[in-house]
Design goal:
577 residues, alpha/beta, 8-stranded parallel sheet, disordered N terminus, binds 6-O-alpha-D-glucopyranosyl-D-fructose
């Protein structure tokens, strides 16, 4: 057994503007199959970097920090919605899909950003929001004004019961409260109701209307023509509803992604994506998609994928799996098998802007998430997180993720080991979930807090020095030890671990053969890919590592006497050379 000290991995080269880094994006930019093995970094633009000092992240801030992404070695970015929006749901309420929100920049700024990313060897995915528009979108304001063609693009229905006073069905909004809001007719009397699976300011479109389909094909082309490499599809499982809009056995739209609901995962949705694939394939190089589709199983998810459908879809079971080897292995096996059946790569993700950050998820008891219809933030209310433990596990989890075959998505800030900020004062909370549940659900603001870049106090370099406005969500003072500046030269930091891991992945794992499970002690997951090995210990005891293995990277220090400690992962070169 070798538990030799970690091999020194070359430090990432200093980013050179316009010059792709070696090993990462540089090699991949010419490859049309790049999306099968890419590492994609999710930029939550509102919280990434603020260029103009208004406390809100923007395109100028993102451009100024591309060096961070180069040094990390990512292949692509996915930028959360940057379109014109009243920001009722942080940009997922779009009022104009063909321009940027002024808070983020102009369309010209967006075009320059796309070009700047490409020059840096980084591809660009945008986020398309096709399930709903903003209520301030021109289509919806025309609908409310009575234009029949505009009304037919949304789901207006008469109410039930005397006077139509009850909503048309029993669906409950994802953010809490009824999924229907009643309109007022021009003469001031109560009118029809409109459907919104999310906030009242996000009316659902009627995807049975050909005008809606044509409009979104045109929006895709608008951005593809500007060089965008692909799209993440918001709520991809929700566009097509059961046409009768019947009552649901379980009215909540939010919790029961694993059970049938007439709003989710209807067969008719696949025709939409077949049409979108034709649009994407008409470009050279072809553009790509990743679906956000919360469906009952990996097998249902695979129905979204294939040569005539979408390229990839997030494997959320992996994100939701507890820190437990049995679940990890089962989820990985099932996700890989179902994606492989349709010729798609698995798409691994540990975090996004909707989910409790992994440091905090892994810092508490590990319930059986997959069997639970609840979100973890409800279940955990009141349990103090052990953040040191959560950090240790999160560092191990990313080595597991990046060693797996397929695509990996990183969410901004995970490379700094940020935790969920759970003590944001009620008056500062922005997520509509908080208001729509009267505060019983704290919502998603805690994973959206602006990034700490440098310095000893907020805004930690997020905004320029002397900015008039504070960051739009408050940053914890403790983040002084988690800034990019404080971590970049620290060999033990989480940022250094991510940089080393991405470099080794680009150099070795992406070319490695398929995964073979290795028999390993209970509480561990172990697999080989050719001469590379990955071992993860989520059990309570140290385990011995294979003999004649050379350590390439470890998530925490190894113990020469006992091997792989609990809550640690290691990458090995097998064969002892
Ligand atoms: O985050 C959730 C619950 O609090 C999820 O149910 C989430 O709403 C669902 O995954 C869909 O998310 C996407 O669409 C929403 C938007 O608020 C999310 O940020 C986005 O990722 C509506 O557009």
């Amino acid at each position: 057994m070798s538990t030799a000290a970690l091999d020194p991995t070359p430090a990432p080269s200093d980013p050179v503007p316009g010059v792709p880094p070696p090993g990462g994006a540089g090699g991949a930019i010419a490859d049309v199959e790049w999306w099968r093995t890419a590492v994609v970094y999710q930029v939550y633009i509102r919280s990434f970097a603020d260029g103009d000092g208004d406390g809100i992240g923007d395109v100028a801030g993102l451009r100024s920090r591309l060096g961070h992404l180069q040094a990390l070695g990512v292949d692509a970015v996915w930028i959360n919605p940057w379109y014109a929006s009243p920001q009722a749901d942080a940009g997922y309420d779009v009022s104009d899909y063909r321009t940027l929100d002024p808070a983020y920049g102009s369309l010209a700024d967006g075009e320059a950003l796309i070009a700047g990313c490409h020059a840096a060897g980084i591809r660009v995915l945008l986020d398309i929001v096709p399930n709903h528009t903003s209520d301030e979108h021109a289509w919806f304001t025309a609908a409310l004004a009575g234009d029949p063609a505009a009304r037919a693009r949304y789901l207006f229905r008469p109410g039930r019961g005397p006077g139509g006073d009850a909503p048309p069905n029993n669906w409950q909004s994802t953010f809490g409260g009824p999924a229907w809001t009643r309109t007022t007719t021009p003469d001031g009397t109560p009118g029809d109701w409109y459907l919104h699976l999310f906030a009242p300011k996000q009316p659902d479109l009627d995807w049975d209307n050909p005008e809606v389909r044509e409009e979104f094909a045109d929006i895709l082309r608008f951005w593809f023509d500007r060089g965008v490499d692909g799209f993440r599809i918001d709520v991809a499982h929700g566009l097509v509803k059961d046409a009768a809009l019947p009552d649901a056995a379980h009215p909540e739209l939010r919790f029961r992604h694993s059970e049938p609901h007439p709003a989710w995962d209807q067969d008719g949705v696949h025709a939409v994506y077949r049409a979108w694939r034709t649009v994407a394939d008409s470009y050279d190089p072809p553009r790509v998609f990743v679906a956000e589709a919360w469906v009952a199983s990996p097998e249902r998810l695979a129905r979204y994928l294939g040569a005539d459908r979408l390229h990839t879809a997030f494997q959320f079971d992996f994100l939701r799996a507890p820190w437990d080897a049995r679940w990890q292995r089962e989820v990985i096996d099932r996700s890989m098998a179902s994606a492989a059946q349709v010729g798609s790569p698995s798409t691994w993700v540990l975090a996004n802007h909707d989910m409790t950050r992994q440091v905090t998820r892994y810092a508490r008891c590990q319930p059986d998430f997959l069997a639970e219809p609840q979100w973890e933030r409800d279940r955990w209310a009141g349990e103090t997180p052990d953040l040191a433990l959560g950090t240790r596990r999160a560092r191990a989890a990313v080595l597991l993720t990046l060693a797996l075959p397929g695509v990996a998505y990183l969410y901004q800030g995970e490379e700094l080991g940020l935790e969920e900020v759970e003590d944001i004062p009620a008056g500062r909370r922005q997520d509509p979930t908080f208001a729509q549940t009267a505060g019983t659900d704290l919502g998603r603001d805690g994973c959206r807090v602006p990034l700490p870049w440098s310095g000893q106090a907020p805004p930690f370099g997020f905004s320029p020095p002397g900015s008039a406005e504070a960051p739009w969500l408050p940053q914890p003072p403790s983040w002084r030890s988690l800034t990019v500046q404080s971590q970049q030269d620290d060999p033990a930091s989480t940022l250094t671990l991510y940089r080393q891991a991405l470099r080794l992945r680009a150099e070795q794992w992406v070319r490695a053969p398929d995964l073979q499970w290795v028999d390993s002690p209970a509480g561990t997951v172990a697999f080989n890919r050719g001469s590379l090995g990955c071992w993860v210990n989520s059990g309570g005891d140290p385990v011995a590592l294979p003999r004649r293995a050379r350590v390439l990277l470890a998530s925490s220090p190894l113990d020469p006497a006992t091997g792989l400690p609990p809550d640690t992962a290691v990458w090995l070169h097998l064969g002892g050379d």
